[in-house]
UniProtKB/TrEMBL annotation:
<dbReference type="Pfam" id="PF13432">
    <property type="entry name" value="TPR_16"/>
</dbReference>
<dbReference type="InterPro" id="IPR001915">
    <property type="entry name" value="Peptidase_M48"/>
</dbReference>
<keyword id="KW-0479">Metal-binding</keyword>
<keyword id="KW-0645">Protease</keyword>
<dbReference type="GO" id="GO:0004222">
    <property type="term" value="F:metalloendopeptidase activity"/>
</dbReference>
<keyword id="KW-0482">Metalloprotease</keyword>
<protein>
    <submittedName>
        <fullName>Peptidase</fullName>
    </submittedName>
</protein>
<keyword id="KW-0732">Signal</keyword>
<dbReference type="GO" id="GO:0051603">
    <property type="term" value="P:proteolysis involved in protein catabolic process"/>
</dbReference>
<dbReference type="InterPro" id="IPR051156">
    <property type="entry name" value="Mito/Outer_Membr_Metalloprot"/>
</dbReference>
<dbReference type="InterPro" id="IPR011990">
    <property type="entry name" value="TPR-like_helical_dom_sf"/>
</dbReference>
<dbReference type="Pfam" id="PF01435">
    <property type="entry name" value="Peptidase_M48"/>
</dbReference>
<dbReference type="GO" id="GO:0046872">
    <property type="term" value="F:metal ion binding"/>
</dbReference>
<feature type="domain" description="Peptidase M48">
    <location>
        <begin position="52"/>
        <end position="234"/>
    </location>
</feature>
<keyword id="KW-0378">Hydrolase</keyword>
<dbReference type="GO" id="GO:0016020">
    <property type="term" value="C:membrane"/>
</dbReference>
<keyword id="KW-0862">Zinc</keyword>
Length: 452
């Protein structure tokens, strides 16, 4: 499925986001995020980040994760940048999203997350010491029959925690300012405008005003948008690239991605509203075709996507969507052909699209094509090993070929990448019983059994 969503757990403690509230600075439990997988949008974001990462001197790989959330936000966790789909939808230009990504890159390149964890630990120690001291004073007051001492102890207990939190939030605000400035440096180094970053902060300020939010400067983890704009305005305008617009090609790709997200999340009516100024443009037509497909009208959707393809026959993602529509229509063999066309045209050589060819062949049910199905899915998994859906189809292909051990192992890998560790170990153990000890497959199953 294109634009497939799955839940993953992310440790929210000490994350650094483009927007935020005080709670972000405190350690939080793992949160389940609805992660989107889509070759078109992932390829676009990769192109947005490539020059930024180069300007920042980031040499280690950084994963960009799409979160299906309508809010305008992005944040860093580990070596990953999470971007809400709402950020793409709300941004009229690619430069606005690029500015947000440059900000998060500033956090990564500056090692802010690791230093923030140190500050969190320090704040916890301060709060703990204050708490112990406060309890000691309160206990002494109670023992001495002094209500004033008891109240003073309670005050120390509460005040110590507040002081520690304010110190931590103040530190985080300073790191946000540093990341904003770093973003401008990366944008200028890569020959891009800082206008989009300022536009994003202006949007956040408008949203705050409309929602009645008036953040207290001392109990928020981020500077107020107006303060951030004031600090960046002069430097951004001094850049020789400030008025350089995004290329028409990049703008079109951006609008196509927006149309896809809107169609999947909000339907045809929302697509029409967003693109009402150009209702016959490619983004509007693309979103309309996707909406028709999702509404369960494959015949009409096929007509519409064919009209879109006729306008730009070399766009791989139009052919990919055609494959999805054909799958819905029960034409698996034709869908496989559409995915193959998409794969040939795809400059990114997305593992998602390659695996889709095999998945369509498996759905077709022709046993004579199962070896080809395995080959396509495994090729897709080589470049995208986290595609948990592909493992399920790989297991089905192996079952059709009578290779039960390989099917059990593929199922285990799918569960493992999907985060279902208990099920992964069950199927890994079942696979081992059918595999010769010491073989690569047996060792692969052993890795799953021993993973934490």
């Amino acid at each position: 499925m294109r634009f497939q969503t799955r839940l993953v757990s992310v440790l929210a403690a000490a994350t650094l986001a483009i927007t935020g509230v005080a709670a972000e600075a405190a350690p939080q439990p793992k949160q389940n995020l609805p992660i989107v997988r889509d070759a078109e949008i992932e390829g676009l974001i990769a192109d947005y980040t490539r020059p930024i990462f180069k300007a920042a001197g980031l040499k280690q790989p950084v994963d960009i994760i799409l979160v299906n959330n309508p809010e305008f936000n992005a944040f860093v966790s580990g070596r990953r940048i999470f971007v809400n789909t709402g950020t793409i939808v709300a941004s009229d230009t690619p430069n606005e999203v690029i500015g947000v990504l440059a900000h998060e890159t500033g956090h990564l390149a500056g090692g802010h997350q690791y230093r923030l964890r140190e500050q969190v630990d320090q704040a916890q120690k301060i709060a703990l010491i204050a708490g112990l001291l406060g309890m000691g004073v309160a206990a002494a007051g109670i023992a001495a029959g002094s209500s004033n001492m008891a109240r003073a102890g309670s005050g120390i207990f509460a005040g110590g925690g507040t002081t520690a939190m304010r110190g931590l939030l103040g530190y985080q605000r300073s790191e946000e300012v540093t990341a904003d400035r770093s973003a401008l440096v990366y944008l200028q180094k890569s020959g891009q405008s800082g206008k989009g970053l300022i536009t994003s902060f202006e949007r956040l300020e408008r949203n705050n005003i409309l929602s009645g939010v008036q953040p207290n400067r001392y109990i928020t983890s981020h500077p107020a948008p107006r303060d951030r704009i004031a600090l960046l305005q002069t430097a951004a305008h001094e850049s020789p690239y400030f008025d350089v617009p995004d290329s028409p090609e990049l703008q079109l790709r951006h609008d196509l991605a927006r149309a896809k997200i809107i169609a999947y999340n909000d339907g045809a009516g929302a697509v029409q509203r967003v693109f009402r100024k150009d209702p016959r443009g490619l983004p509007a037509l693309y979103g309309d075709a996707i909406s028709t497909h999702l509404a369960g009208s494959p015949a009409l959707a096929l007509q519409k996507i064919d009209a879109v393809i006729a306008k730009n026959p070399k766009n791989p993602y139009f052919h990919e969507m055609r494959g999805e529509i054909l799958m819905e229509a029960g034409r698996a063999r034709d869908a496989a052909a559409a995915f193959q066309t998409a794969s040939k045209l795809d400059p990114k050589k997305s593992g998602l699209i390659e695996a889709s060819i095999g998945q369509a062949l498996v759905t077709g049910g022709d046993k004579g094509q199962m070896k080809d199905a395995v080959a396509h899915i495994k090729k897709g998994l080589e470049t995208d090993p986290t595609n948990s859906v592909a493992y399920r189809f790989l297991a089905m292909a192996y079952n059709a070929l009578g290779d039960d051990a390989a099917a059990e192992l593929a199922t285990a890998e799918g569960y493992w990448h999907g985060g279902a560790m208990k099920d992964a170990r069950i199927f890994a153990a079942r696979a081992q019983l059918k595999l010769k000890p010491g073989t690569p497959q047996w060792l692969q199953a052993q890795d799953i059994l021993q993973s934490k």
